[in-house]
Specification:
Layout (H helix, E strand, L loop, with lengths): L1 H12 L3 E6 L3 H13 L5 E5 L15 E2 L10 H19 L4 E3 L2 E5 L5 H13 L4 E4 L1 H7 L7 E5 L3 E3 L1 H12 L2 E4 L3 E7 L3 E6 L4 E9 L5 H7 L7 E7 L2 E3 L8 E4 L11 E4 L5 E4 L3 E2 L13 H9 L1 H9 L1 H12 L1 H9 L10 E3 L3 E7 L10 E5 L2 E6 L8 H18 L1
Parallel strand pairs: 1-2, 1-12, 2-9, 5-15, 12-22
Antiparallel strand pairs: 3-8, 4-8, 5-7, 6-7, 10-11, 11-12, 13-18, 13-20, 14-17, 14-19, 15-16, 16-17, 21-22
């Protein structure tokens, strides 16, 4: 028994960590936090290619704590968003992170949208979310400059600083977080674990690998030797800031089209009281293509070579054409905003930083609608975690941690 214990210690010391996480966005850092909470003493290392946390999807969204009203009952998105919203408010309160529970309006501006609005009422109730129906006069009472035929008020929606949340998760996890660590090679062996090489030649060895690489998660899965059976197709969301923030009191959304995972151009009063307008959804020409001028031929070629990309284009070209028009024409973007906020003018819209959504697409052109987590030998891959992943990051992190710790126990 004495010799066996010594052998275990020697094997353990051959690894730099027990759980090796690739990706320092909110999901990767939440996973590290959940691992160390569930199994104190577990050694966790996080590798992030940027010089700080939350530089991409996490730090470039509108900061909304989503209620879960949109998502199919029973789906991971519905369950994790509802649970995650409540937990996110508590987390922010515990660590003094700026946040507010403001509620939001979802407004129908055309008769054709009314059945979809009523369907959202039912979906919200099925998901256990308090929803209140409003008529035109009540809309004006809540938002004097907003016009619509009908609306619903969702009281559990809020806003917060997700960048600050990600930083706090990293600090509270006690993990070894290494910034500027761009993963270029993975040697994953089912009987040993994973050895990861970064661009500067550093090698990090872990017993279990967790892939939370966001915009690069499919590429990371293939580096590990797994076929993710999907491809990340990046969609850029372009925002403006409202020059007259007094026009909007809170959060105002259109009725979304259920055929798409995008919520449409909406108005969001953030923690700093500025009002974000957007986003649209246009194809990005690079995984981190935050503008039309950012083109990476290899990444663009990978998108164009994926059959699902062309099937999306054929199936949804009308929707896509409208989004492209709003991207290249400020007047068209203003027109979309004026459906909700008639007083807005092009001069009211000031350019703001764009974001890119990492949308998983299957070979047949299906846009993956739910969070997608898959496992390989000693590996957990998070393959689809766009909005509302920031809202749901605490329960997502626990689920990924559960799988990683199960793999660790079996190793």
């Amino acid at each position: 028994m004495h010799y066996r214990s010594r052998e275990v210690v020697q094997v353990r010391s051959a690894y730099d960590c027990d759980v090796l996480v690739i990706g320092g966005g909110i999901v990767g850092l939440s996973t590290a936090y959940a691992v160390t909470r569930a199994a104190p003493g577990t050694r966790v290392t996080v590798l992030e290619k940027e010089q700080g946390p939350a530089r991409h999807q996490t730090g470039r969204n509108s900061g909304v704590i989503h209620s879960g009203v949109y998502y199919r009952p029973g789906s991971l998105k519905a369950r994790y968003a509802v649970r995650g919203a409540a937990e996110m408010v508590k987390f922010c309160a515990e660590y003094d992170i700026p946040h507010a529970v403001t509620g939001k309006l979802i407004v129908a501006t055309e008769k054709a949208e009314l059945p979809r609005l009523h369907a959202l009422v039912q979906r919200g109730r099925e998901n256990g979310i308090p929803v209140r129906e409003l008529g035109p006069a009540q809309i004006i009472e809540a938002e004097p400059e907003v016009r619509g035929l009908a609306a619903i008020h969702v009281g559990t929606t809020g806003v917060c600083d997700y960048g600050a949340v990600a930083r706090q998760l990293g600090e509270a996890s006690g993990a070894d977080i290494r910034y500027g660590a761009d993963v270029v090679r993975i040697d994953r062996r089912p009987d040993l674990g994973a050895a990861v090489r970064t661009a500067d030649g550093t090698i990090v060895r872990g017993r279990v690998l967790v892939n939370c690489a966001g915009l690069h998660c499919d590429e990371t899965a293939r580096l590990a030797g797994d076929d993710p059976e999907m491809r990340i197709v990046p969609f850029r969301g372009e925002y403006f800031t409202l020059a007259r923030p007094e026009l909007v009191r809170g959060l105002v959304y259109p009725v979304p089209d259920p055929a798409f995972p995008f919520l449409g151009v909406h108005l969001t009063r953030g923690i700093d009281s500025s009002v974000h307008v957007g986003p649209n959804a246009v194809p990005a020409l690079a995984r981190e293509g935050y503008g039309w001028g950012v083109v990476r031929p290899r990444e663009l070629g990978a998108t164009l070579s994926w059959p699902g990309s062309w099937r999306i284009a054929r199936r949804h070209w009308r929707y896509g054409a409208g989004e492209l028009r709003r991207s290249v024409s400020k007047a068209a973007f203003t027109e979309a905003v004026r459906r909700l906020l008639p007083a807005v003018t092009p001069d009211d819209l000031l350019p703001a930083a764009a974001g890119v959504r990492a949308q998983a697409v299957l070979r047949d052109g299906t846009l993956v609608d739910d969070f997608l987590i898959k496992e390989g030998p000693r590996t957990v891959h998070v393959l689809n975690a766009p909005s509302p992943a920031a809202t749901a990051s605490l329960p997502i992190g626990r689920e990924v941690a559960r799988r990683a710790l199960a793999a660790l126990a079996a190793s």
